[in-house]
Please model this.
Amino acid sequence: MPVVNELIRSEQDGALSFGNYELQQKSKLSDFEHCGDLYKVKTFYEITKLERNGSFVYESVPGTAVSNFKATADGVSFLVEGREDAQITLELEEGASYEITINGENVGTMATNMGGKLVLSVEFTGSKAVSVEIVKA
Model:
């Protein structure tokens, strides 16, 4: 899975792809329209952050490249790759529990905090993308 050279793009199936962890300088793109919402992405090797209509959606430290990002009322799924293992923070429903699956393996149930944030770690092996699926329990 290559980085997203245009920083953010819409996929034919309605998913989003964003992020470029190979950039040495912080780059951002605002007012990207997708499915009636406006997105803003900031990305480079230290961090990747996505906002929808001014609200937090996704953040990784260090930076990552995300493809096929799909968010529904029941959760979120995406493929992610990076140079180093990453901590990913997502904005989900406040006070809800979610089943976390990484590369097809159930890693357990996690609850969001009072602000609706869910934090997980992803380990990378080489340049292989990791699939993440988070479904409301």
